[in-house]
Amino acid sequence: MALRSVLKTGRLALALAGALLLAACDTDLYTNLDEREANLMVAALIDRGIPASRVVEKSGKMTITVDKDRFAEAVKTLNDAGLPRERFANMGEVFKRDGLVASPVQERAQMIYALSEELSRTVSEIDGVVSARVHVVLPENDPLKRDAAPSSASVFIRYDPSMKLNELLPQIKTLVANGIAGLSYDKVSVTPVAVPTAKLNESASPTPYVSVMGIWVHQESAGRLMWMLLGLAAIAIVAAAALAALLWRNRKPTLKLQPLVPAK
């Protein structure tokens, strides 16, 4: 009965320690990321003093985890940095054949959409641009008419406020105008919006670290690490007690030697 009671107590302690370990785990922030994008996101979070790590999934993709208490802060930080980058469709994906014959109207719509996606991706790669969207207008002109409606494009960007707009806007307008046949520079409009955060190239204050039983960890993780260590210590104590009880119960009986009595 004593051994059964010890084993029952051990199972309860293991369950409690497991619960403590699960409570101390980080939470998933983003999943199904490629390695380059995951590296950029982790670097942006660490630069802002938010501990983050990558976990490789079975598919080879990456998952980013952060402290659950700083989840909201991490989401806002990445959103302000334009991460994760928006995925734009390329020409091959837009015009991927599905076995059906596309009508001229459908092909034209696909062409306009593909141009918008390709230009949006390219503009997003310009230094200082956090995110971008390009909307292209290609009027369907009658070749027999003399006056044709000109093509136009509208660009929306979120940009780093440390960049000079008078240098950034001409680059964007030239890029878009040269990317569409028949589109003039003057028919490209750009709407810039500054990212409402500190300058992206400024580093955060030094991350505070503390020592917990000789282990240096981030200050935010000190309490969770202490609970984890206490849980592991409880497991070790209960396991040792259970083992001692088991050995005591299964010990071999010893024979008591009787003193020799001389024969009469």
Automatic annotation (TrEMBL):
Membrane protein topology class: Lipid-anchor
Q: What is the protein's major site of localization?
A: membrane
**UniProt keyword annotation of Ribonucleoprotein present:** no
> InterPro entries, from UniProt?
AMP-bd_C_sf, FliF_N_dom, T3SS_SctJ, YscJ/FliF
TM segments?
Answer: 225-248
**GO biological process terms, semicolon-separated:** protein secretion
Does Metal-binding show up as a keyword for this record? Answer: no
Q: Where in or outside the cell?
A: Cell outer membrane
Signal peptide (UniProt feature, chain positions)? 1-23
Cellular component annotations (GO), alphabetically ordered:
cell outer membrane
The residues covered by the Flagellar M-ring N-terminal domain are 28-191
Alphabetic keyword roster? Cell outer membrane, Lipoprotein, Membrane, Palmitate, Signal, Transmembrane, Transmembrane helix
For this chain, the family text in UniProt reads: Belongs to the YscJ lipoprotein family.
Q: What is this protein called?
A: Lipoprotein
- Which gene is the coding source of this polypeptide chain? sctJ
